[in-house]
């Protein structure tokens, strides 16, 4: 048996216990796969991130939900880099590379005049795939009516590192009544049964924000809802550029709000720039330290 220290940071907010909680483990090289999964299960956050050595980047980060390892996690990356910066473990570096399962990604670390640290994270290349399932069943699975779905915009699977189903909704009121039945997701998402579901709309609580969203986890993740989702916000930015903006090809700076319905409201900054074949995507945000605690590892009864 041994104890492992976990740091709790909240991402996409400056207020403790708002935004999206992430567990951070800085000594990941001392742990095996089963131990990482056990820690993530016991921590219970949507993601726990483990810092390990890399031969091709400054750092490697591995991401675990309570149920499985993920390719990429936006909020846990923002939290990890914020923690390393504020712990003086990045020295004076303003550009850092991280190795992930979707490749090596660039990180920018900026400190403003009021000493606020902003972390900007390059996303993987955007991808979209068609959803061919039942809209009625989809709406039912997240606790709304089919009439609440926005008929002028497509429902699409999207990814800038993690696949989610982007579901445009026509009114903000529907978000307050949503109640996901996550166990139904794999039977509805026939094309990508392990994807999450990400309803969003262009009506927002705050007037200076571009989109509002919620994020319902895949049942394989072992969680129900993600408070403020970085990778999903990234692909939302590309969706906005392609379908809301239309034919325009100028760069966009967007703000996504999320978490209001579960009292975890936060904001994700999304930068979308046209590239030769598609778009380059970055997400940015703050984080805040909450506390640290120890997790007792036992007999690795939790396996991958």
UniProtKB/TrEMBL annotation:
Q: Which domain of life, per UniProt?
A: Bacteria
Where is the chain membrane-spanning? none
Q: Could you tell me the keywords of this UniProt record?
A: Isomerase
GO MF annotation: an example: isomerase activity
Looking up InterPro entries in the UniProt record yields:
Phenazine_PhzF-like
Q: Which residues form a coiled coil?
A: none
Q: Name the protein family.
A: Belongs to the PhzF family.
Entry protein name:
Isomerase
Source organism (scientific name): Staphylococcus succinus
């Amino acid at each position: 048996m041994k104890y492992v220290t976990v740091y709790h940071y909240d991402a996409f907010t400056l207020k403790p216990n708002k935004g999206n909680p992430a567990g951070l483990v800085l000594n990941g090289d001392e742990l095996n796969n089963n131990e990482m999964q056990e820690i993530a299960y016991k921590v219970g956050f949507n993601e726990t991130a483990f810092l390990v050595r890399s031969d091709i980047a400054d750092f490697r980060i591995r991401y675990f939900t309570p149920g499985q390892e993920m390719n990429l996690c936006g909020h846990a990356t923002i939290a990890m880099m914020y923690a390393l910066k504020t712990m003086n473990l990045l020295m004076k570096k303003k550009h850092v590379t991280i190795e992930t399962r979707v490749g090596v990604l660039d990180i920018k670390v900026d400190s403003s005049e009021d000493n606020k640290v902003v972390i900007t994270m390059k996303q993987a290349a955007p991808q979209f795939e068609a959803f061919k399932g039942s809209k009625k069943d989809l709406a039912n699975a997240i606790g709304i009516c089919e009439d609440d779905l926005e008929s002028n915009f497509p429902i699409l699977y999207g990814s800038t590192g993690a696949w989610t189903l982007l579901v445009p909704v026509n009114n903000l009121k529907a978000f307050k009544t949503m109640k996901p039945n996550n166990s139904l997701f794999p039977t509805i998402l026939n094309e990508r049964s392990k994807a999450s579901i990400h309803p969003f709309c262009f009506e927002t609580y705050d007037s200076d924000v571009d989109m509002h969203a919620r994020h319902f986890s895949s049942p394989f993740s072992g969680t129900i809802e993600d408070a403020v989702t970085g990778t999903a916000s990234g692909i939302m930015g590309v969706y906005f550029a392609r379908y809301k903006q239309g034919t325009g090809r100028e760069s966009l700076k967007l703000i996504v709000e999320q978490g209001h319905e579960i009292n975890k409201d936060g904001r994700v900054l999304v930068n979308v720039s046209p590239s030769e074949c598609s778009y380059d995507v970055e997400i940015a945000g703050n984080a805040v330290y909450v506390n640290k605690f120890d997790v007792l590892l036992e007999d690795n009864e939790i396996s991958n």
